[in-house]
Amino acid sequence: MENAPLFDELEHPWELLAELIEANNVELIIALLDQLNPSATALAVSRLSQPHQSSLLTLLSPEDAAEVIEDISDSQAVDLIEDLEPQQAAAILEELDSDHIADLLGELDEADANAIIDEMAPVEAEEARQFLQYEADTAGGLMISEYLDFRSDQSVQDVLDDFQTNRDEYTYYNVQYLYVTDENNQLEGVLRMRDLLFPVRTTRLHQLMIRTPYAIHVNASLDELRDFFEEHDLFGAPVINDNNELLGVVMPEAVEDAKRKRSVRQFLGFSGIIGGEEFRSMPLLSRSGRRLSWLSLNIVLNIIAASVIALYQDTLSAVIALAVFLPMVSDMSGCSGNQAVAVSMRELSLGLIRPKEVMRVLSKEASLGILNGITLGVLLALIAYLWKGNAFLGLVVGGALAVNTVVAVTLGGLIPLLLKRLKLDPALVSSPLLTTVTDMCGFFFVLSFATLVLDKL
What we know:
Number of strands: 7
Number of domains: 3
């Protein structure tokens, strides 16, 4: 590249990018972006001001703007697309793969998404509407429409001629298989690319195709897709509906990417970040709202837990040492409960347990909770006795920790299953709900046990 030396060893490429945007120097903007790797592009774009970000996509051609969109996260891309006119946004989206279009449109407000779709070419608009009707983490939400299908009575020569005629378009396709369909678009078979190399050119496709190929239902879940590709080492799989009509193709890398995004969502949910990914380049009020939506709920939950202390304030005033052990009992129990939550979440994601298997989880976790509860309770009782020399104090705090651990571990294992059955996201609700329960129960057990033997403390 002629301009490459100009951009060598740039520590802050976004500063130069901002200058080039202000100068409307499209040629050098493209040269700079070509030199940056995807992560560097994402960093540079995120450090631009909002007006500069909008100007960047406006200056670039739809093809070049689409390359920028591909290099940044979906959350960042949605923020940029929202600031564009629908016509310009539609032109950029049309340059992306169909599954990427569906991902971005799915994160936009319904009104904004429909406005953009209305500006797209009829074929692309119809595809976008079709893709949006499926859940994001299903075969329908992950499939692409860039595939090649032919009729069974066509010959090898017909296929090769089609390749030559449409070679410019097919260059951007990830073609590993060809699909054979009938006049009703029902899937009849599949051909590998190598199946076209050796047969006589007049050979018909029905003579070469693999009949009854592996296929995935359009509503297959992400876990089902993961299991499918672990069992079948394929470069892609056709997606069909109840009528065996070919709707698209899902790629294993799309499944892996969706699994990664789900893990990110779960991590953010456990961390109290609601509403998707957060970046410090986002507007202040938007970031504040995402965090406060969980923190505000947490205030209410903590008030509920703290109310238990208010009921036993006389006991707490009489034995000040209990105040030292209250957070220890609740925190230790909470840690045990979160371990159970993590195991249930993992088993749910791997398909090793089903939401209705409550009794199985109850028996497994209750037995483990009893064992761990007794062990931890004895340790804490010993610490309390060595500190204060009072066996009853040790019995109170140790017994409270033991009982609360059983409660926390059992609930920690069950809550994700129950939330899953209620079609709620376990990653978002399990942790704050469990924390409140373990705090409330921990305070209750310590203070109620202490009240029973108050004269011995």
